[in-house]
Amino acid sequence: MHFFAKIGLTAVLGIVFATVPMSAATIFSTTLSGANETPPVASGGSGSAVVTLVADILNVSITYTGLSAPGIAAHIHCCGVGIAAPIAVPFTTFTTGVTSGSFNASYDLTSISSYSTAFLMANGNTAASAETAFIAGLNGGQTYANVHSTAFPGGEIRGQLAAVPEPATVLLAGGVLAALALLRRRRA
Description:
The chain has 188 residues and is α+β, with helices and mostly antiparallel strands. It contains four helices and nine strands. Helix content is 30%, strand content 32%.
C-alpha cells in the first residue's frame, strides 16, 4: 500500500473513532426462567431483566409473567454462578402478591440503604466497599436477578446478568475489521 494511502486510511479511522460517542452507561441483561434456578424448578414463569449502571446509579427494569404463585420478593444476588449467592441489592419496592408484572427502580450504590445487611457485613460493612464488590461482581458476570414466589420461596425465575455490547463498540470493532480486511486485500 502506498505511504500516503496508509496515512489517509489512518486519518479516516482516527476521525471515525473520535466522532463515535462513548456511553457512560454499562448495560446488563438476562432472561429469567425456572431452569436457571439453583437447583432448577418446574415453573412456567418467564421474564427479563435489564440493569443499567451509570456512574454510581443502578437502574433496574424487570418484567415477568406466568409465575406459578404470587411473587413475594425480587433482588440481585452477588457473587457467583450456579450457586445460591447472597442477596446484594434487595428490591424493597417490588410489588408482591401478583403472578405477572413489571418493576423499575434506581439505586444509589454509594448509599448503605441500597444493600442487604448480609452483603454489607460480608464486604467491609461500608457502602464504598459494598459498591466495589458489587460492581466487580456485576462486571465479572457474577450477579443474577431473581424473582421469588410463595410456591418457590427460594426463587422461581432467575437469570445471570451479562454485559450487553454498546452499539458504538460494535461499530468500532466493525470499522477496524473492515480496515484490516482492506489492508490485507491491497497487499495481496
